[in-house]
Amino acid sequence: MSTAGRDQASATPPSDLAGTLDGADFVRLVARADGDGLAATGLLARALTARETPFQASVARTGEAGARTTDADVTVSVGAEGVDATATLADEPLSTAAVETVRALGTEPDLALALAGATVADGDSGEATLAEAAGFERRPGVAVPVSEYVDGLAHSTLLHAPFSGERAAVEDAIEALGSDDDTDRHRRVASLVALAIAGDETATDRATEAIERALHPYVGGPFETIGGYGDVLDAVARERPGLGVALALGHDGVREQALDVWRTHASRAHTGIRTASTQRYDGLFVVRGDAMPVETVARLVARFRSPEPVTLVVAGNRAAVRGTDDRSVAPALDAATTAVGGTATRTNARFEGDADDLVEQVREAL
């Protein structure tokens, strides 16, 4: 999946970034507002803590947020755009690049955090290589952050099935499975999810491939599965960035708060998908609704519902775009947003003009 339009040549090699951090007196880390960016920032911040180097970490959802100034002598953009940065971590997945940087600093990274970030990264995350090197093992079942599948499946944003966001529907489905054996239960739940998506008349052919990312999860870290950990990181990065930073830094006492945010975020996303209006054009599927997290809805619709290669989600004055072919869709959103009076960062945007105008501008830009 191609979503970004960054110039990869602008990325600072991990060894060079490590050298820059090694000589810093005070570091500012600016994370991209997603699970991968948050995890990568947490990895770098933990390494700085181990070296007793003062730092400030934040999440930038807009270019304006990234452009804020501080007294730091080194500013690192961790996938964030619009940052006046001394160095830039931009190679994807960001978490994997951060692991290389941390090791170059002579510090051992938290591989559960790194793998969690990689599992929710776009495209080929290379998670299998990282997991094998770290010694993480898979188990049957579905990647959720909690031990109870009713809660986990109802609120997962790694998938969108007919029961997503409907706790009662998930509970009925789980009860019908039976089985007291944990391993057998995990397998039955995985089959339940796969069959539910395969049998969903609103799902696309790519949905059966997309669900593979959520099955047979790696186990480890502070949550039930690594994929569930990544799902929580992604949600809090978008909803409560400050809490997300605390979670990525490994602070005690934030796990339950993060899970509450994850549940709320997921409910808004799945409800948004069900209640939104849609429009289909040649090459573009448009989803329009109110008060829904546009980035997460765009990702889920693109993977599980969109019949076209590009998905545009609009809610209020916010928009997000996702592509499922090889094209880079970020430039199209940027051009369209500029045309209607707004700003775009990677694949999400804020605009002041009319939503119909934005849709038309995106169609023209594609």
TrEMBL record:
Keyword annotations of the record: Exonuclease, Hydrolase, Nuclease
Gene Ontology terms for molecular function: exonuclease activity
UniProt name for this protein: Putative exonuclease RecJ
Organism of this sequence: Halomicrobium mukohataei (strain ATCC 700874 / DSM 12286 / JCM 9738 / NCIMB 13541) (Haloarcula mukohataei)
Lineage: Archaea, Methanobacteriati, Methanobacteriota, Stenosarchaea group, Halobacteria
